[in-house]
Amino acid sequence: MQLKKIRSDMNLKGKRVLVRIDANVPIKKGKAVDGPNGRIAKAAVGINWLSQRGAKVIIMSHLGRPNGRRTASYSLKPVAKRLSNLIGVKIKLSKSITGSDVENIVEKMNEGEIILLENIRFDLREKQNSSDFTKELSVLADMYVNDAFSVSHREHASVSGITKEIPAYAGPLLSNEVSVLSKLNKNTKEPFVVIMGGLKVQTKMPVIKNFEKQASNVLIGGALANTFFAAEGLEIGRSVFDELGIDEAKNAISHLGKKLILPIDVVVVRSLRKDAKLEVKAPDSLNKTDRIVDIGPKTRVLYKSIIEHAKVIVYNGPMGYCEINTFCAGTKFIAKAIANKTSSAVTIVGGGDTVPVLERLKIADKFTLLSTGGSAMLKFLAGKKLPGLEVLKIKN
Fold first, then answer.
1. pLDDT tens, 377-395?
2. For 59-118, what is each residue's pLDDT tens digit?
3. Ranges for all domains in the chain classified under CATH 3.40.50.1260
């Protein structure tokens, strides 16, 4: 996919550049929880690049789902502080998103100055992709840059609508993600291994189907595996699974045949407590009080042996219930195995639940691509069109 990109040979000095990033990260005790490889940290690189070239940078982002209401808990104030610390300059937060107040602020901006607009979803017109809203936003800038791959599957005003009003370009972060992911559909080297965890079958199966012919193996873990066990008629006790995805799981078992690899052992508990007793069982030996919370040790070794021979690896979603660290051993094991392959294989990892785990292991920078997008990555890999990308494509 060829996109119109912001380029180093463009004269950006004094230009007002409206930049869409994704700063949708957890806020705890008034601070943005964002590690060195987090969404804000990655976006800061492109923002600083624009600032250093003399652009007047106006940042847009959302946080949570305020549904058009101004809510203090969804304010971008912690994001402004995080960006200020990363870039090393004071970044002002504009309480207004559009209108005369913010227009006056922009008018007084110096070259290289950066401001952040308040949560774009405080205005209902964002999700409605309102043309009135995009016109109001466009008054603020000379050009638009989308550097938020993770929201590019949304047909929102700040993602796709704004491109109808002012010249629009892909930012460096978005361009890199699209470039790496696009190569998967072109002459993919074998063995090609797809590893899927998480919960929802409907978000994972389109990816699996898209790579059904190319993939050498599809490894399943997490609550996703529980759904496949249920589809096989196995007792899964009190384990979390996707009831609506059972039929799709059955179809996958039929179509993928030996390519599909399910856990050969699982870790079960009786309660979701940190101090719960862990038991390792075969998938066909669970009772009604068991909860599957992780892939077992034999499965980890099996999956690692497949990973070690791979030339391309796509991984999305945890292998266990990582909300509790005790149940995250399988995810950590698989993540390390993939990281160790990066020197000899293309390694692509995505999913919002996965990044914090990788940062704690200090391997978040050890992959060919650590995608900022969860749903966007899955939709892209499923071959679906993303509105935010379609409007930036170079037309032949």
1. 999 999 999 999 999 999 8
2. 999 999 999 999 999 999 999 999 999 999 999 999 999 999 999 999 999 999 999 999
3. 16-174, 187-381
Please, which residues bridge with residue 114 across strands?
A: 57
Please tell me the CATH code under which domain 16-174 is placed. Answer: 3.40.50.1260
Q: Which amino acid is at 290?
A: D
- Residue 263's contacts (CB-CB under 8 Å, 6 or more residues apart) are 220, 221, 225, 283, 295, 296, 299
Non-local (6+) Cβ contacts of 182 within 8 A are 1
Question: Quick one: DSSP state of residue 151?
Answer: G
The answer to whether 232 and 350 have CB atoms below 8 angstroms apart is: no
Residue 256 tokens read as: 């993928």
- What does CATH list as the number for 187-381? 3.40.50.1260
pLDDT digits 0-9 by tens, 316-334:
999 999 999 999 999 999 9
Q: Mean pLDDT, to the nearest integer, of 301-319?
A: 96
- CB proximity list for 148: less than 8 A, separation 6 or greater: 20, 21, 22, 43, 61, 159, 173, 174, 372, 388
Maximum Cα–Cα distance for the chain, whole Å? 69
Question: Cα(238)–Cα(323) distance, rounded to whole angstroms?
Answer: 17
Q: Do residues 147 and 173 touch, judged by C-beta distance below 8 A?
A: yes
Q: Are 1 and 322 within 8 A, CB to CB?
A: no
d(CA 358, CA 293): 19
Among 252, 218, 249, 255, smallest CA distance to 234 is for 249
